[in-house]
Each structure stands twice: as structure tokens, then as C-alpha cells.
Amino acid sequence: MSFKFQPILNLRKHHEDHCRARLKEEQTKLQRIEDELTKIQATKRAQETEAEKLAVGAVKPEYLLFGSAYLGYLRRKQEETKGRRAQQREKVDKTREALIQARKETKVMEKLKEKKAREEAEERLRLEQKTLDEMAINQIYHS
Predict the structure, then answer these.
(1) Using the 8-state DSSP alphabet, how is residue 91 labeled?
(2) Would the pTM count as exceeding 0.90?
(3) What gap in Å lies between CA 97 and CA 92, rounded to an integer?
(4) Are 102 and 11 in contact (CB under 8 A)?
(5) Alpha-carbon distance 4 to 47, whole Å?
(6) For domain 6-111, is the CATH number 1.10.287?
(7) DSSP assignment of 70-124
């Protein structure tokens, strides 16, 4: 059986594989951002705990000032990271949609190939049956 659209099917499979790889890359990037956000939150909690400890007893203003500035930095970093996470989630969603579309296109070609194979098999069976019928008729008339 020769499927005349095999090169197109191969291209679509390659494109689907490429989309799958891109999705994995984007998901990995998202996971890194999630990990970074977790680290920032843990650092922020630790800094807040440290600030509470320093606020008891004799308070040194420079420690409070540095602690407050660092907490402000951590808050800004957390908000910036949340923004990056939202953008990365959009990229992951778009990449997932591209993969879904590529998979649909590949499935269409695969179904077309299967249909063509089925039609060729049915045609071979029909020709074989015709040949057997002709042989049977010839055998009846010649006996």
C-alpha cells in the first residue's frame, strides 16, 4: 500500500513531536518560577520571624530599617514573580492548545491513511472474490 500523503503525515507527526517538546519546556519554565516563588515566600516568612524577634527588647533602628527594606524588596520580588508566573501559564496554555491542534491534524491524516488501507483491502478482497467466481464458473462449464 502506498499512501500518497505519507510525507504530509510525517511532517504533521514531526510538528506534533515538536509541540510536545515545547510544551515540556514551557512547563519546566513554569515549575522553575513556582519554585522561585516558593523560595521567596519562605525567605519572606523567615525574615518576618526574624523581624519579630528583633522587635522584642532593645530595638536597634538600623536592624528594623534593613529588615523593613529587605521585606519590601521581597514583596516586590514576589509580585514580579507572580506576574512572570501568570505570563508563563499563558504560554503553557497556548503551547498546549498548539499541541492539541497538531494532534488533531495528525489524527485526521492517520484516519485518512487507515481509510485508504481499508478501501484497498476491500478492493483486493473484491478482486479475489471475482477471480474465484470466474474460476468456479469456468470449472462448471468445462466439466
Answers:
(1) H
(2) no
(3) 9
(4) no
(5) 66
(6) yes
(7) HHHHHHHHHHHHHHHHHHHHHHHHHHHHHHHHHHHHHHHHHHHHHHHHHHHHHHH
> Rounded to 5 degrees, what are φ and ψ at 4?
-70, -15
CA distance 99 to 89: 15
Q: What is the spatial distance between Cα 16 and Cα 54, in angstroms, rounded to a whole number?
A: 57
Instruction: Write out the three cell numbers for 88.
Output: 508563563
Using CB atoms within 10 A of its CB, is residue 12 exposed (0-12), middle (13-18) or buried (19+)? Answer: buried
Q: Give the orientation angle of helix 6-54 with respect to helix 61-142, to 10 degrees.
A: 160
The pLDDT tens digits of the residues spanning 5-59 come to 999 999 999 999 999 999 999 999 999 999 999 999 999 999 888 877 776 766 6
Nearest by Cα to 30 from 20, 22, 42, 19: 22
Place of cell 514573580: 81
CA distance 84 to 88: 6
